[in-house]
Q: What sequence folds into this?
């Protein structure tokens, strides 16, 4: 065997032994890159330049040189031997603006507007280098800009906007402004982005749109153009506020009433004129409202007059009427006046009681659904009224103020033998009147007859018997049986009555009560009443004590 073959065999065995368990390295596998290049990005404010990042992973090394070339396909249009690092952003390199690429017509090397490939090469201080082909695209196109955008002045006589302006393209390198003819510029209402029209540029890039109605006084508008082509790329925008010239006008108005309750119609009439000569202003939009209610839209007629019929709907702090102009070009259109709109109220009957002595007491509450505080700004007056049938003919029989107490409660009373009643709160400028439900109270009338004290005269300390008959009115006077009665006595010369005995009536309504005498005086029998009967007192009988 040849010696060189034996050597190769020995070397192979040695390599297999030493490399056991590990895959041998391939001879053509590239070494990992030490220097890196990022993406090249066109600078939008000067599209003849671009910037790119570059770095090195070698320890204690730095990128020392970055170069680039611009090409179209395989044709190199520009060699850029030295990009400059940005001192405030280390690792970022750019073509200086003073070396910006230009069109050949401007003395540069780029033949036409368009998009071109950028290759970038970076080298570090240890000599490591890398080239990234197609690191980015140079956007060598015109940047669209809208200049001089103006919507003009809108007046009462001409209530339109007139958008106009100029569309130009900023040329890379030279930064010359060139007109962009034949382009469509769109217009939008600024705050809600509503499209309102468009216009086409002429040979100089200028555009003038057809008149468009002004919809609100403080509107602002936006002109916008966008294109993504080989010559023009980007979006141009410009804003302008509407300039409004108003017309001075005079508004006079009156209402047909100064107080209106819930649901009542208030008619407001008036006229709009020119203050300079008093001439009418026709077809002007206005709105009229009561308090803080819902406005009603109206317009003036040929003589400048208007009429608004408004329905009162009281609520918290609802007072007054007003009329104001709603047109964009109006100035000075406002009128107002006083109008009381009493708040709704509720007068509620809580309870009532008719005592046996004929005293009716009604308890109630007064409330307004719009009030959240405890009391009222002013006291209200509540009437206790009586009617013969509970429906009509109500007449006042008593009254009481509803004071500013925290309960808003009240009580009112009257002496009566019964009937139909209700509570009625009088209205004021603040509160509407209201009435409670009607209620009926009744008791049966009674009488005490034939009071007789025997014997008389009588000696001191002797027993006296007093008799009487109690009746009630049941479609005629009938005996009132098994009812409690009192024997009362008043000494001669005294107005004070004392109860000296109790008893009950018999089936015939007769009562017999006994007491011992001590001094001269008068005796009487009293029926004290019950849940359904009035009380009553008989005539007194004088007894002489000896």
A:
């Amino acid at each position: 065997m040849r010696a060189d073959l034996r050597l190769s065999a020995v070397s192979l065995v040695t390599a297999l032994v030493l490399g056991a368990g590990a895959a041998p390295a391939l001879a053509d596998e590239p070494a990992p890159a030490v220097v890196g290049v990022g993406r090249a990005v066109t600078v939008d404010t000067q599209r003849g330049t671009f910037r790119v990042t570059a770095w090195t992973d070698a320890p204690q090394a730095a990128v020392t040189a970055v170069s680039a070339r611009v090409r179209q396909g395989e044709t190199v249009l520009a060699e850029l031997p030295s990009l400059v690092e940005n001192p405030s952003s280390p690792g970022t390199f750019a073509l200086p603006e003073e070396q910006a690429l230009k069109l050949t017509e401007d003395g540069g090397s780029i033949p036409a507007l368009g998009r071109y490939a950028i290759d970038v090469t970076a080298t570090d201080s240890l000599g490591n280098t890398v080239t990234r082909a197609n690191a980015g695209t140079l956007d060598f196109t015109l940047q669209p800009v809208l200049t001089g955008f103006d919507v003009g002045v809108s007046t009462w006589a001409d209530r339109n906007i007139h958008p106009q302006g100029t569309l130009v393209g900023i040329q890379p390198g030279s930064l010359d402004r060139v007109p962009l003819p034949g382009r469509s510029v769109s217009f939008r209402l600024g705050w809600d982005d509503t499209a309102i029209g468009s216009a086409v540029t002429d040979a100089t890039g200028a555009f003038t749109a057809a008149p468009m109605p002004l919809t609100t006084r403080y509107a602002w508008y936006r002109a916008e153009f966008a294109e993504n082509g080989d010559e023009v790329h980007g979006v141009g925008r410009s804003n302008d506020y509407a300039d409004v010239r108003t017309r001075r006008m005079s508004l006079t108005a009156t209402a047909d009433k100064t107080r209106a309750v819930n649901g009542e119609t208030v008619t407001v009439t008036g006229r709009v004129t020119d203050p300079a000569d008093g001439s009418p202003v026709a077809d002007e939009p206005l709105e009229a409202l009561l308090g803080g209610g819902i406005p009603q839209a109206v317009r003036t007629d040929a003589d400048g007059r208007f009429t608004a019929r408004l329905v009162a709907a009281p609520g918290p702090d609802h007072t007054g009427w007003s009329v104001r102009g709603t047109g964009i070009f109006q100035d000075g259109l406002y009128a107002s006046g006083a109008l009381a709109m009493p708040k709704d109220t509720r007068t509620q009957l809580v309870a009532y009681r008719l005592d046996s002595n004929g005293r009716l007491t009604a308890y109630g509450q007064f409330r307004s659904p719009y009030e959240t505080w405890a009391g009222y700004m002013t006291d209200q007056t509540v009437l206790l009224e009586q009617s013969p049938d509970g429906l009509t003919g109500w007449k006042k029989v008593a009254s009481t103020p509803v004071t500013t107490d925290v309960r808003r409660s009240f009580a009112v009373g009257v002496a009566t033998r019964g009937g139909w009643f209700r509570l009625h709160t009088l209205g004021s400028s603040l509160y509407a009147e209201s009435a409670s439900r009607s209620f009926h109270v009744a008791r049966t009338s009674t009488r005490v007859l034939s009071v007789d004290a025997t014997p008389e005269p009588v000696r001191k300390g002797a027993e006296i018997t007093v008799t009487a008959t109690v009746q009630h009115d049941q479609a005629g006077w009938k005996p009132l049986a098994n009812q409690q009665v009192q024997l009362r006595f008043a000494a001669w010369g005294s107005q004070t009555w004392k109860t000296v005995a109790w008893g009950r009536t018999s089936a015939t309504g007769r009562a017999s009560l006994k007491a011992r005498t001590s001094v001269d005086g008068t005796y009487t029998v009293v029926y004290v009443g019950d849940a359904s009967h009035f009380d009553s007192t008989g005539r007194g009988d004088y007894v002489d004590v000896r």
